[in-house]
């Protein structure tokens, strides 16, 4: 897929920006703080309904403005015309539209696929499990039609059980059991879908890691579902109630799942340098994009934030060449045009104080 038009209103320092994007490589150059990353953030928001940047959600909306709004015209390969997507935020609520009609956030995210490598991406390797679950679940969402319904079912049951745990006193088994059964049933389905997705992703990861980190040797992918395989989750939850009441939350379940990578010559995460963590994270992002393309016949949009400061020149050139070979649309930022792109046809925009000027 590709973004043909992108309009951004009220996102951080971007008051009202309209961009006609190239189907191949688009580069946004300018000083730090000029608003380059916010362009990539806008594309990512349409695909995830959340930002890849840390900080309060309220910081997304430009100071002094009541709301932010994003609009895009999206072209999908082998489909005529474009699909018009819109995402707005006023107060605490997101609102989505597709071709002018109200849509759910899930429908919007289904229609727009964007992956992003940015300075915080190393958290995918070295950060908390939440980052890896988000990565995993975004991939599962795009291949399993009922994943979102099961995920919501799981979240509802988890919320109800946690409320009972914090209620004080000793709630009766009759109150816990329906929600524990509901949580367990949804969890088993989610676990199967996550495992199946990782099985399909593994070959893409192996290729990517070999290309970017050949010095580390063979890769191993491990998955932990969040509870022991010895018995069903519903039995674990019943046995764990007392301890969970003391903690005030549910300590076992799919919300505790995680996956990790290790290498023949770096069996522990601590053995990786920060540069190797970044390359491993980049390989994960590109592997997910590759699998998406295999499943859908269409590459997602690939965002690369501040590429020159994150990768050395040889790795920059390798990544750009790979994305050109598969004809992916790329949105890339930097304080100047990266050396890997100086001999490449690209649409270049200069960004200054939230304003965009096309240079090439």
UniProtKB/TrEMBL annotation:
A Gene Ontology cellular component where this protein is annotated is: cytoplasm
Task: Tell me the organism.
Answer: Rhodanobacter lindaniclasticus
A GO molecular function held by the record: ATP binding
NCBIfam families for this protein: recf (TIGR00611)
**GO biological process terms, semicolon-separated:** DNA replication; DNA synthesis involved in DNA repair; double-strand break repair; SOS response
Record's function text:
The RecF protein is involved in DNA metabolism; it is required for DNA replication and normal SOS inducibility. RecF binds preferentially to single-stranded, linear DNA. It also seems to bind ATP.
Name the coiled-coil region(s): none
Record protein name field: DNA replication and repair protein RecF
Subcellular location(s) per record: Cytoplasm
State the family named in the UniProt similarity comment for this chain: Belongs to the RecF family.
Chain ranges of the RecF/RecN/SMC N-terminal domain = 3-337
Per its UniProt record, what HAMAP family does this chain match?
RecF
- Positions binding ATP in this chain are 30-37
Q: Which keywords annotate this record?
A: ATP-binding, Cytoplasm, DNA damage, DNA repair, DNA replication, DNA-binding, Nucleotide-binding, SOS response
């Amino acid at each position: 897929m590709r973004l043909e038009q992108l309009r951004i209103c009220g996102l951080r320092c971007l008051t009202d920006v309209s961009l006609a994007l190239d189907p191949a490589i688009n580069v946004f150059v300018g000083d730090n703080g000029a608003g380059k990353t916010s362009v990539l953030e806008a594309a990512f928001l349409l695909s995830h309904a959340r930002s890849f940047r840390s900080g309060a959600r309220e910081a997304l909306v430009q100071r002094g403005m009541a709301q932010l709004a994003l609009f895009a015209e999206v072209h999908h390969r082998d489909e005529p015309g474009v699909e018009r997507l819109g995402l707005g935020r006023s107060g605490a609520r997101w609102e989505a539209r597709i071709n002018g009609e109200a849509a759910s956030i899930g429908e919007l995210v289904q229609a727009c696929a964007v992956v992003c490598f940015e300075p915080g991406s190393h958290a995918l390797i070295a950060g908390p499990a939440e980052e890896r679950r988000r990565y995993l679940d975004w991939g599962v969402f795009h291949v399993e039609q009922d994943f979102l319904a099961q995920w919501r079912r799981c979240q509802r049951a988890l919320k109800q059980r946690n409320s009972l745990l914090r209620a004080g006193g000793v709630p009766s088994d009759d109150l816990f059991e329906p929600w524990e059964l509901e949580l367990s049933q949804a969890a088993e389905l989610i676990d199967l879908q996550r495992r199946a997705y990782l099985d399909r992703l593994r070959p893409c990861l192996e290729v990517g890691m070999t290309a970017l980190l050949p010095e580390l040797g063979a890769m191993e992918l491990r998955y932990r579902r969040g509870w022991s395989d010895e018995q069903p989750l519903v039995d674990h939850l019943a046995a764990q109630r007392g301890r969970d009441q003391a903690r005030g939350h549910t300590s076992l379940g799919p919300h505790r799942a995680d996956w990790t990578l290790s290498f023949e010559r770096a069996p522990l995460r601590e053995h990786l340098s920060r540069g190797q963590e970044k390359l491993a994270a980049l390989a994960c992002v590109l592997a997910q994009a590759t699998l998406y393309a295999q499943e859908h016949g269409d590459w997602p949009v690939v965002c690369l934030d501040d590429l020159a400061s994150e990768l050395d020149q040889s790795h920059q050139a390798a990544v750009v060449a790979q994305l050109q070979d598969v004809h992916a649309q790329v949105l890339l930022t930097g304080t100047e045009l990266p050396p890997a792109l100086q001999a490449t046809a690209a649409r270049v925009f200069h960004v200054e104080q939230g304003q965009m000027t096309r240079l090439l």
